[in-house]
Structures are given as C-alpha cells and as structure tokens.
Amino acid sequence: MSARIAELNLNSGRIPKPSNAGIHGKVEKIIPSPRKRQPEKARIVVDLPEKPRYRALRIENELIDEHGRDVKVKKGARVEITVTPKAATPRK
C-alpha cells in the first residue's frame, strides 16, 4: 500500500499547478528611488473588465526576461502581468 502511495506522490502529472491570472496594463510613470540602494519603481495602470475602475500597481523596475537578461520597462510600454498566488498554508 505504501509503495502505491509513494508512486502517486512521485507522478508529476498528478501534482496540481497553482492557478494564475493574466491582465494587461500600461506603464504610466517611472518613479525614481529616494535612495541609491533601492530600485526605481514602475507604476502600471490596469483596467479590469469585471470592475471598470482605475487600478494601479507599483513594481520594482528590475526585471528579468525569458533569456535571463536584466531589463527595465519604459514609460508608455504595454505589459502583461501574471498574478500567481502563494502556496497555501494549512489552517489550524
């Protein structure tokens, strides 16, 4: 019985992947950092179709592309944001 359970745990097809959501936005403003050690931030405006209200996110403007190179977004750039939840913690 324990061998069967171990086999099920090792089967990568059975491991649930975390859900994620993608939204589109536009870089509205680049905010310079107040200190040299802190990175600048990019203010991204998103329009959610479910809620037609103005939403803005601020992220650090130190990003890595799919090839592992450092990149920065520029004002006016169209971006796609993927939101992934953190791993669930068991409730007590």
Model description:
This protein is mainly beta and 92 residues long. The protein has one domain. Helices cover 10% and strands 38% of the residues. The protein contains one helix and six strands. The protein has one helix spanning 2-10; strands at residues 21-31, 41-47, 54-60, 63-64, 70-71, 78-83. A four-stranded antiparallel beta sheet has the order 3-2-1-6, with no helix packed on it. Strands 4-5 form a two-stranded antiparallel sheet. Strand 2 (41-47) and strand 3 (54-60) form a beta hairpin. It is elongated. The model has no long low-confidence stretch (mean pLDDT 78).
Low-confidence stretches: none
**Based on DSSP secondary structure assignment, what is the total number of beta strands?**
6
Report strand order across the widest sheet: 3-2-1-6
The domain count comes to 1
Helix content: under 10%
Number of helices: 1
Mean pLDDT: 78
Q: Give the overall shape, derived from the CA principal axes.
A: elongated
Radius of gyration: 19 Å
Structural class by secondary-structure content: mainly beta
Strand content: 35-45%
What is the string of helix and strand elements?
Answer: HEEEEEE
**Main sheet makeup:** 4 strands, antiparallel
The termini sit apart by 29 Å
Question: What topology does this entry show?
Answer:
Elements: H1 2-10, E1 21-31, E2 41-47, E3 54-60, E4 63-64, E5 70-71, E6 78-83
Antiparallel strand pairs: 1-2, 1-6, 2-3, 4-5
Task: Describe the structure concisely.
The chain is mainly beta.
